[in-house]
Amino acid sequence: xxxxxxxxGLGWSVHKxxxxxxxxxxxVNGRELRAIDQPNPIWTFTLTYPFLxxxxxxxxxxxxxxxxxxLQTLMGFFLGQQGxxxxxxxxxxxxxxxxxxxxxxxxxxTTAFTLVRRMPVGGGAGSSFIETMNWPQNVSALYLNGVAxxxxxxxxxxxxxxxxxxxxxxxVSINVDFTYYxxxxxxxxxxxxxxxxxxxxxxxxxxxxxxLL
Length: 213
Description:
Elements: E1 15-26, E2 32-53, H1 70-80, E3 88-90, E4 97-105, E5 112-114, E6 116-120, E7 128-132, E8 135-144, E9 147-148, E10 153-156, E11 159-164, E12 173-186, E13 193-197, E14 200-210
Antiparallel strand pairs: 1-2, 2-14, 3-12, 4-12, 5-11, 6-7, 8-9, 8-12, 10-11, 12-14, 13-14
């Protein structure tokens, strides 16, 4: 699957917005009945690229764009996905890894555990929002009761599951170090590239929207 390019032209500010979907029915006495239709958030990433160099910079030998192709890389990627049609992977520069993340406790029989990230929700000790990270990039270490395990487990790029050869014993805490992608698509079917200076370009806004499996 295609991976969104990491380019030096990424600027500030960057927006990241989680959104849920809730049905709210209000009675005549003012009481509300709420039902969550979408328990996991849809993430929207809004990126800006104020400076994209053009590899065809011909102003002078060794011009600003020579050796760089950020414009064509980003434009070509957008064209390759045909706007909002195709899904691809995105590594959020500010949120793409977890260290020593707890993913479960062994019971002596379970051999598969799901990669998740936990965010504290302020509801007391240990209270957190748990989100499955469906697209791991790399699992660099796994710990059983704090002890690193060099073998006896495996993972796959196409699955959020850690699989053990032998089930961890009852009460054994399982933690991992891993990096991950978000599965996203472009929000729009068009992109507005601006040639603000001779052979220098910008893309004021590009929105990526996460795709739930």
